[in-house]
Description:
By secondary structure, the protein is an alpha/beta fold.
Amino acid sequence: MQANVTVQFNTEEPGIPAEDEILSWAGSMLDGQEGEVTIRITGEDEMRSLNSRWRNIDSPTNVLSFPLHDTGSPLLGDIVICAPVLRREVAQQGKSVKAHWAHMIIHGILHLMGYDHSNDKDADFMEAKETALLQNLGFPDPYLQDGRAGL
């Protein structure tokens, strides 16, 4: 069984990559994995609500991952991406739209796979993994572009 990725669009925010691009980036990460992943593209209200409920932070964020480890379920988890936040980050950080979206997809999937950035050692390891994966897709190092600004 190969990983199955579903993309849900819950916003009409401009600048969202095409579904086939999102599926391609996710597929490059999930090659050989089994299970299901849902990537939900949403607006600020939904993201604010999720971030408040699950992280006690009352503001939208760029990406949230909801891994389902050790549940016996065929689901790997869900990734929620806030399109308006990404649009602002692209403008603020001077990144290309596609590079930043690919980064957030990869970042979210790495969380589903158990990677984290809760301390400096884990963050350095995860950032190196993200950078290598993005470079394999033809994108530049996302941390050099923005002076290692946090996610």
